[in-house]
């Protein structure tokens, strides 16, 4: 009966239903004992006559109840399943599960895990070993074979990654493992998107493969991705793409967010019928566009729909000044004509109509330009000269072009990168060439190092620089004879650049070439904070630490433990598990490492030619329901009803003073039959003398452990766990204490009394703890426990305006419901400063925040005790220095996060501070005893 959504795992057990007539006969033969009433005059006859009488038959409803109870037990033993799923053939020597867990799998990852669990469950029925490989994990990740339970645990621990898949390397490893498993089944759970090298990867995987193949891809590809953004003249433009299979018209909305996650602009992108790309524009002022930190497509919970922005995405204001009178009369001869046309696509240009430089230059500086261009400007007025020098030293970029006025002016060492010779060098003149000179290879130490020298550009006139020992270092472009074409130099925080030719096509044809546009673009990029995080003014490539990462669901999160510094090159660095997409660098300079390149296109994955039988599988949750438990529960409920009915018929409820009658043989037979049928479940219901949780409690108190509060944010919890693990290692190495592994606790339900110290990282994005949870923490602190609150916001930008940071405000909200004693920064004579190491302060990943503890009530009495604390230990400690971030180490013992500032000794002092805190928690004011004073004074050199 295919229309019935019910199946049985052991259908042979259903033959037991044929025993129901026998059970009916037994029940009718031995009905339950009737209720008896004794007439007092006949009591003597009762003693004489001992014959037991039984009724002719039991009530029909009681017989029916017992038959139904027996039928339920038989059906339960047959393992019934409602809405059974179709089983896939996974037979063979092994099952190889190859799962794509790249960025495109994040949207329906739970569905893919459920599909893989069904395959593992089918393999478990035949005890088939399982090879489990993910295409977005580390190359050396273990792939098995595993037993079904271990494979299931690894599957549940896996998660999608915000990176592309690497099928080539993973498929090769699986193919090598399958050589020792002939006839194994291979299940490919793909994301449906093609990747470079797929043909070779599938050819390697299925070469000489004869076992069954299971192929699963999404039924519909609907993922969207952002490939390009540009801060253009008319607005901020962005481009989105989609797979070609999603051909219906579609309209989506994208939002722009600042560095605090606030939405400040929107754009609508419309895909036409059959279109795979769409563009949109956010038409907002460029001052607001410069605040964009990221853009994201609404409703897309995956990394490709998010694009982070760095300084390169911010449009800059450039001021232009020229003393030429031909600007209006002859535009093509104007010194600013070619400069203006070259800069206009990627900069906002400002000019002044006042010919007086003493007025024009201050007017430009007041508009806060990132770069000022002086086209053939000679001697500057003294006031304008001073303002311009200060502007450059404070971070401005000054670009000057040569000309007749500059050649005739007195040398200006303050606003020129090199010392110039008087006059100019022209073709056919003194110190001239016999023929025009071409541009040589751009030096590797300049910002033009990645440009190709223009073969069509020639130079006929130039201003020469005086030879100096550092002329080579200051040369950013030169001619074939070695003379400088462009020179540059740093002046404190600013940069000065000089083109030794005019900006018109009179001295050279460089201004009418495409190279001129690219050179000015590089200089505009250089003007952004005087260099991006990727390269400084000399063009040296930097290695940048991870700052904020894009998670698989598109959220911006702290760096993961797998993230490593990014070596930025001139070409686009690949996105890998060690360099996931996100921002790299520091707050002073960030580099955006995005997932999709500008030329990325989504292509559907085509099923390759497979020389083996293929079964197509659909991604879906397991909607089948095992009915064994409900049927057993129903049988037990009927058994209870049967017992109550027998007691009622025996008069147990009518005369409570009488001893209940013994159940008749019929009822005993049914009970024995039910117990025999339920024998396989006896081990599951075995009584336990121990109470639930006793084993965990014994394990928790058998060894000293440090604990941390689980916030729900995987990134913060991972750093807390790694930080306490690093501190535990340091305690084992430096002290006699050997703590166990740190334990994460849920303050709303876990027992807190097992831990002497609980580290609580404050996350403003986490939900506010409930009143019951705060009450549990309050009780823990009153009973002798200590909570270390860490806001991790020492350098929070919100302190600049005097307001509390979000983390500090959340901590205040938590402490408002706690019985917090008066607090004070750790005094210089506190036990914490000498509990193990002698420490003046307590730094973490950051330095500068005081460590707050309970204030001493008898601080003035310093004669009787060399410390200020009482006999107790402070129940609360507060810091903002991110202690766990400084303690955090990976599996190899290497530090995971850099200190700020990057000082190795700061991490050492942070670990020592952790040792002092732990020792103080365990020993109290032991170090305050007078017996320790001589030793402490000797260590202090007093």
Structure description:
The protein is of the alpha/beta class and 942 residues long. The protein has six domains: 6-84 and 627-685, no CATH class; 95-220 and 604-622, Rossmann fold (3-Layer(aba) Sandwich), CATH 3.40.50.410; 225-313; 316-530, Rossmann fold (3-Layer(aba) Sandwich); 543-588, no CATH class; 704-939, Domain of unknown function DUF4159 (Rossmann fold), CATH 3.40.50. α4 (109-125) packs antiparallel against α5 (148-157) and α6 packs parallel to α7. The longest helix has 22 residues, at 628-649. The N and C termini lie far apart (95 Å).
Blueprint of the fold:
Layout: E1 6-8, H1 20-29, H2 43-48, H3 60-77, E2 80-82, E3 95-99, H4 109-125, E4 130-134, H5 148-157, H6 167-178, E5 185-189, H7 198-205, E6 213-216, E7 225-231, E8 236-241, E9 250-257, E10 263-271, E11 277-282, H8 286-289, E12 294-297, E13 306-308, E14 316-322, H9 326-329, H10 337-343, E15 347-351, H11 357-366, E16 371-375, H12 382-393, E17 397-401, H13 404-408, E18 425-426, E19 437-438, E20 458-459, E21 461-462, H14 471-474, E22 475-478, E23 484-491, E24 494-499, H15 514-527, E25 543-544, E26 546-550, E27 556-557, E28 566-567, E29 582-586, E30 589-593, E31 614-617, E32 625-626, H16 628-649, H17 665-677, H18 694-701, E33 707-709, H19 714-734, E34 743-745, E35 757-761, H20 771-782, E36 786-790, H21 806-815, E37 823-825, E38 852-854, E39 876-879, H22 883-887, H23 904-923, H24 933-939
Parallel strand pairs: 3-4, 3-5, 5-6, 6-31, 14-15, 14-16, 16-17, 17-24, 33-34, 33-35, 35-36, 36-39
Antiparallel strand pairs: 1-2, 2-32, 7-8, 8-11, 9-10, 9-12, 12-13, 18-21, 19-20, 22-23, 23-24, 25-28, 26-27, 26-29, 29-30, 37-38
Helix pairs in contact: 1-3, 1-17, 3-16, 3-17, 4-5, 6-7, 11-12
């Amino acid at each position: 009966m295919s229309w019935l959504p019910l199946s049985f795992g052991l259908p042979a057990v259903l033959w037991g239903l044929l025993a129901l007539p026998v059970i009916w006969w037994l029940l009718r033969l031995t009905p339950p004992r009737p209720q008896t009433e004794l007439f007092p005059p006949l009591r003597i006859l009762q003693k004489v006559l001992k014959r037991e009488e039984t009724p002719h038959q039991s009530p029909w409803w009681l017989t029916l109840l017992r038959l139904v109870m027996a039928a339920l037990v038989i059906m339960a033993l047959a393992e019934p399943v409602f809405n059974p799923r179709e089983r896939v053939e996974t037979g063979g020597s092994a099952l190889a599960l190859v799962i794509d867990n790249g960025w495109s799998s994040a949207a329906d990852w739970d569905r893919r895990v459920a599909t893989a669990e069904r395959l593992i469950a089918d393999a478990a029925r035949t005890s088939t070993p399982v090879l489990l490989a993910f295409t977005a994990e580390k190359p050396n990740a273990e792939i098995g074979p595993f037993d079904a339970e271990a494979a299931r645990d690894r599957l549940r621990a896996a998660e999608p990654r915000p990176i592309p898949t690497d099928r080539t390397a993973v498929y090769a490893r699986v193919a090598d493992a399958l050589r020792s498993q002939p006839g194994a089944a291979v299940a490919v759970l793909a994301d449906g998107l093609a990747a470079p090298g797929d043909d070779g990867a599938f050819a390697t995987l299925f070469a000489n493969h004869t076992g069954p193949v299971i192929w699963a891809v999404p039924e519909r590809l609907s993922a969207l991705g952002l490939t390009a953004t540009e801060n253009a003249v008319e607005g901020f433009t962005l481009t989105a793409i989609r797979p070609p299979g999603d051909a219906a018209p579609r309209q989506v909305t994208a939002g722009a967010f600042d560095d605090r996650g606030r939405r400040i602009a929107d754009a609508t992108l419309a895909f036409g019928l059959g279109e795979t790309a769409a563009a949109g524009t956010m038409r907002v002022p460029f001052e607001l566009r410069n605040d964009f930190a990221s853009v994201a497509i609404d409703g897309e919970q995956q990394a490709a729909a998010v694009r982070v922005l760095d300084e390169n995405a911010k449009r800059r204001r450039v001021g232009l000044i020229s003393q030429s009178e031909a600007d209006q009369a002859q535009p093509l001869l104007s010194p600013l004509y070619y400069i203006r046309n070259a800069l206009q696509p990627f900069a906002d240009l400002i000019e002044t109509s006042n010919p007086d430089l003493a007025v024009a230059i201050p007017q430009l500086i007041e508009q806060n330009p990132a770069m000022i261009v002086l086209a053939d400007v000679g001697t500057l007025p003294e006031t304008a000269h001073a303002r311009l020098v200060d502007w450059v030293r404070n971070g401005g970029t000054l670009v000057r072009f040569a000309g007749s006025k500059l050649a005739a002016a007195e040398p200006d060492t303050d606003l020129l990168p090199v010392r110039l010779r008087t006059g100019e060098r022209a073709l056919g003149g003194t110190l001239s060439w016999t023929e025009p000179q071409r541009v040589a290879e751009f030096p590797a130490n300049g910002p033009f190092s990645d440009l190709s020298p223009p073969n069509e550009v020639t130079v006929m006139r130039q201003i020469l620089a005086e030879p100096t020992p550092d002329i080579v270092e200051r040369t950013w472009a030169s001619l074939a004879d070695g003379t400088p074409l462009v020179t540059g130099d740093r002046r404190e925080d600013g940069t000065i650049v000089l083109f030794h030719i005019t900006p018109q096509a009179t001295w050279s044809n460089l201004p009418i070439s495409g190279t001129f546009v690219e050179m000015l673009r590089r200089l505009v990029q250089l003007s952004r904070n005087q260099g991006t995080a990727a390269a400084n003014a000399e063009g040296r490539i930097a290695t940048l630490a991870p700052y904020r990462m894009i998670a698989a669901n598109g959220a911006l999160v702290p760096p993961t433990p797998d993230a490593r510094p990014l070596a930025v090159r001139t070409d686009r660095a690949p996105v890998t598990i060690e360099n996931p997409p996100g921002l790299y660098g520091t707050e002073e300079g960030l580099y955006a490492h995005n997932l999709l390149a500008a030329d990325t296109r989504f292509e559907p994955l085509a099923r390759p030619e497979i020389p083996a039988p293929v079964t197509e599988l659909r991604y879906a949750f397991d909607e089948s329901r095992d009915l064994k438990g409900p049927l057993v529960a129903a049988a037990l409920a009927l058994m209870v009803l049967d017992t109550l009915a027998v007691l009622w018929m025996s008069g147990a409820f009518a005369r409570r003073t009488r001893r209940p009658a013994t159940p008749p043989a019929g009822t005993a037979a049914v009970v024995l039959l039910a117990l025999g049928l339920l024998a396989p479940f006896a081990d599951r219901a075995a009584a336990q003398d121990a109470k639930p949780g006793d084993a965990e409690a014994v394990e928790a108190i058998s060894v000293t452990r440090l604990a941390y509060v689980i916030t729900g944010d995987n990134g913060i919890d991972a750093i807390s766990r790694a930080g306490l693990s690093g501190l535990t290692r340091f305690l084992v190495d430096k002290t006699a204490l050997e703590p166990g592994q740190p334990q994460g606790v849920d303050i709303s339900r876990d027992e807190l009394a097992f831990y002497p110290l609980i580290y609580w990282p404050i996350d403003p994005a986490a939900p506010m703890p409930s009143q019951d949870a705060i009450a549990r923490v309050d009780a823990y602190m009153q009973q002798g426990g200590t909570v270390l609150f860490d806001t991790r916001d020492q350098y929070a930008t919100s302190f600049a305006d005097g307001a509390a940071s979000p983390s500090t405000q959340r901590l205040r909200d938590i402490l408002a419901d706690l019985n917090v004693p008066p607090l004070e920064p750790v005094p210089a004579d506190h036990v914490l400063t000498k509990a193990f190491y002698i420490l003046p302060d307590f730094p973490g990943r950051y330095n500068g925040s005081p460590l707050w503890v309970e204030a001493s009530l008898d601080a003035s009495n310093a004669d009787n005790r060399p410390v200020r604390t009482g006999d107790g230990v402070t129940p609360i400690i507060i810091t903002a220095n991110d202690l766990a971030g400084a303690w955090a180490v990976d599996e190899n013992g290497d530090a995971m996060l850099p200190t700020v500032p990057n000082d190795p000794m700061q991490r050492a002092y942070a670990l020592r501070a952790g040792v002092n805190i732990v020792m103080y928690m365990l020993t109290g004011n032991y170090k305050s005893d007078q017996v320790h004073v001589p030793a402490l004074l000797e260590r202090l050199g007093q």
